């Protein structure tokens, strides 16, 4: 099979021929149709993602959608010919998805939404799993709450906005002026962070009370802003990039709470992988019900042009999720 290989950090990927993997018990061999890229893929290529524990040479790529070629022993949940998607590899010692085939733990997969193409489906797994963990598992989002999503037009952000809306929350999202229409098209309220300070938009949109649930998808100073934007006593902040050093004083003075999300852990540890297949089944339900749609770039990339895809993602020169079709 053809596969993209990362042989040195901070170098382009190369295309090589590898042996098609053999599925182990509880794995399925998947013919990959599309591989979705995420900012983490860029950090891995640059050698700036020690937490991903990738050892070179490696096949990168975390997300994928494809067709099951052959189930391994003990797999009863899928059969040959099933169309599936999942956050499947590219982390630790797991082969990534920028290849014609990948052998995947069946627990990590779910049936692809029938109303999405392979390209669209490959844009979903990591961002949806992260958004679900943040809002549903950690944030316990419920009907009628006010939810603020920082970075609402980003990969995790645009999915989180739609997920919170599907849960019946009133949703606000910080975005630049250029992304107002995208957020409005989902039914949420855009907040131009370049025009308003935290104090100003908390006053304008919550009468100074703060938001019930705040999701930080950016980290750094935005997490500090989140501590100032959350509601007193009952509010909760969740961050997917809470890795820096921060003062907890603003959060403590509001008597609010905080949670962090580390989406890679089940792939690295082997623990709780079935939870990811279950979360993706929730994604399929929402997508097939018309409550969630991915924002995918129309630009066409293949294995042969994979370095162009990486460059465009790194330069942020393309709108929408970048997906490599295989």
From TrEMBL:
Domain Enoyl reductase (ER), residue spans: 13-324
GO molecular function, one term: oxidoreductase activity
Short name of one Pfam family: ADH_zinc_N_2
InterPro entries in the cross-refs: ADH-like_N, ER, GroES-like_sf, NAD(P)-bd_dom_sf, Zinc-ADH_QOR/CCCR
Keyword RNA-binding recorded: no
Keywords recorded for this protein, A-Z: NADP
PANTHER family according to UniProt: QUINONE OXIDOREDUCTASE
Protein name (Swiss-Prot/TrEMBL): Quinone oxidoreductase
Organism in which the protein naturally occurs: Niastella vici
